[in-house]
Inverse folding.
């Protein structure tokens, strides 16, 4: 049962997160900062998530091509 | 937003997954036995239909803002993963996905496996190969259908896009009876990565509370910008890859003495 649950979790992790978990972490942090800026500071930070996505992609590609991931 | 971009995006994404499932089904059916292959395919389709039937309407019950935040985050992460692979393939750092060689690998494995009858299925290997292939590729289809359909509050249009994609691929596969190796699958995956990342970013930011300039029309700018940046990354990496391949290798004492010259 535990083995089945583990492999089920591993499947979904691999399915959504994939090869580079840092990309997922960056997207989540960027979303949290966007929500903070919008709700707490009143800044309409629509530009933040696209910029974070491009930066995360560049970072991930750099790591992949330099053999660090 | 009209239903057309939703249907088209889901169509292309699901077509890519359906082509991969078709390769596995053909390998099982042509090499082993069609009856068990169809049984495996049917069992997987029943599971997938149950997942859509349960999850689709349930997720719709969530408030739209929370739904878009979660779905946006998932789609952006999922889309960036696709884009990363597509860019690495386009730049030459990763082998291009090739349905013909994937098919040959599956055929070789299918030929080597013994024929075992189990639980009313005459060829258990063909059944499980087909079941797993259709279920795993189908889960990606379900993920895309539910996330896109629910976020647009138009699950029906997303289901239509997926159904057309699966039908077109299935009918073509039946007619050709070979893996669809000539379909520009790598370019399609690149396009799907761009769409998933764009929609994920759009919905995620909206769920976090931002108001996009121009509302839904912002997608008309966001999609080309994501495409341009991704193509730029691919071009830059391709150039770097070519330069590093052309650069002279450092000479070792072995090569300086001529290596193995016979």
């Amino acid at each position: 049962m535990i083995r089945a649950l583990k492999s089920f979790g591993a499947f979904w992790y691999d399915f959504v997160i994939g090869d580079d978990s840092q990309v997922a972490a960056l997207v989540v942090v960027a979303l949290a900062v966007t929500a903070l800026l919008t709700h707490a500071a009143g800044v309409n930070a629509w530009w933040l998530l696209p910029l974070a996505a491009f930066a995360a992609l560049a970072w991930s590609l750099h790591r992949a091509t330099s053999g660090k991931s | 937003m009209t239903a057309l971009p939703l249907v088209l995006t889901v169509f292309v994404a699901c077509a890519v997954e359906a082509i991969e499932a078709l390769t596995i089904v053909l390998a099982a059916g042509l090499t082993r036995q069609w009856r068990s292959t169809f049984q495996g395919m049917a069992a997987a389709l029943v599971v997938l239909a149950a997942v859509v039937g349960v999850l689709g309407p349930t997720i719709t019950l969530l408030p739209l803002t929370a739904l878009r935040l979660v779905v946006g985050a998932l789609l952006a992460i999922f889309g960036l993963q696709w884009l990363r692979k597509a860019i690495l393939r386009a730049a030459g750092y990763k082998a291009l996905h090739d349905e013909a060689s994937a098919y040959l690998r599956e055929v070789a494995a299918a030929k080597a496996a013994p024929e075992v009858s189990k639980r009313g299925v005459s060829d258990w290997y063909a059944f499980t190969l087909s079941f797993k292939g259709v279920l795993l590729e189908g889960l990606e289809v379900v993920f895309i259908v539910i996330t896109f359909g629910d976020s647009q509050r138009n699950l029906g249009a997303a289901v239509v896009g997926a159904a057309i994609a699966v039908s077109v691929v299935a009918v073509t596969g039946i007619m050709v009876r070979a893996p669809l190796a000539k379909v520009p699958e790598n370019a399609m995956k690149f396009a799907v990565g761009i769409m998933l990342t764009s929609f994920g970013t759009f919905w995620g930011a909206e769920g976090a509370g931002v108001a996009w300039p121009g509302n839904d029309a912002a997608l008309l700018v966001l999609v080309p910008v994501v495409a341009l940046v991704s193509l730029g990354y691919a071009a830059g990496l391709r150039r770097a890859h070519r330069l590093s391949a052309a650069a002279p290798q450092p000479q070792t004492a072995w090569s300086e003495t001529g290596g193995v010259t016979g």
